[in-house]
Amino acid sequence: MTALARPTNGRMIGGVCAALARRFGTSATTMRVIFVLSCLLPGPQFLLYIALWILLPSEGRARQAW
Asked: Which of 1, 2, 5, 18 is CA-nearest to residue 64?
């Protein structure tokens, strides 16, 4: 597994789904479909997405921190 950081390439909105897909070894499209389907269920999916967008470092910044 790789470090959890939003990639600079392959982003759609904030790169959260792409970062999670890279972390868990799936495609970004699969992760995006899972997110959209999860939005049909009650819960704080959008708040979680926004929180991860804020908390996860961008890939360039994550490399500089190490």
From this structure: 5
Query: Which tokens hold the place of 49?
Result: 């997405």
pLDDT by residue (tens digit) across 13-26?
889 999 999 999 99
How confident is the model at residue 66, as a pLDDT? 52
Average pLDDT of the residues in 17-46: 93
pLDDT confidence tier of residue 3, bands split at 50, 70 and 90? confident
CA neighbor of 54 nearest in space, from 10, 19, 30, 3: 19
- What contacts 24+ positions apart, CB below 8 Å, involve 6-14? 6/53, 6/56, 6/57, 6/58, 6/59, 7/59, 8/58, 8/59, 8/60, 13/53, 14/49, 14/52, 14/53
